[in-house]
């Protein structure tokens, strides 16, 4: 490691002040600390958000679930409110990485980092959730902007995420065994207004699939999903799987997700 200062503010106001002055926010540290060890990131000051009580916790607010940015994956997975109102989200949180990652990783850190194969972005995008920051509220469709890129401005901190609870939902993924990230993951959420489908791991970032959404809004069945042709032209291709393989996975995992959501 190299020399840097370490701050642990006790309030959001103090954290915002430090981040606004150039401090690097530290949430769960699952990506940032590894990047620092590899000299890919060299912040002069770390601002640890772990001591800010107001950024952690889960609460039900009408037909929405509000989850604090510093809520750990394990907390989301075992939350009685999440299990009752939104079991698909509890399942997703319970299957992120391994036990150590779930004990330290946070929802806010995952969203701010926006790894193209992370699980949480698919849930946020598929539900049309709202990302709440110290400055504003950002719709999911506007938040994710590509590879490790979001709508967050310098010094802006995520404080919470508001999920509108769907009528039916499910998440399915095929894990890349070495990294535990999804090779492809698909989150399906059904509302009175229609169905939203978000895909992670397959492209340059999380994205919605209009063809699947249209088909499933007309008929929420695995057969409807099976009838949608998945275009592989903009999908990733690497040593773990070709673009055509990922395209096939999107279709298969969507069918499984719909079957699971139907109970």
From TrEMBL:
Keywords: FAD, Flavoprotein, Oxidoreductase
Keyword check for Cytoplasm: no
Domain FAD-binding PCMH-type per the UniProt entry, residue ranges: 1-168
Pfam families with a match to the protein in the record: FAD_binding_5
Keyword Flavoprotein: yes
PANTHER family noted in UniProt: XANTHINE DEHYDROGENASE SUBUNIT C-RELATED
Protein name in the entry: Xanthine dehydrogenase family protein subunit M
Lineage of the organism: Bacteria, Pseudomonadati, Pseudomonadota, Betaproteobacteria, Burkholderiales
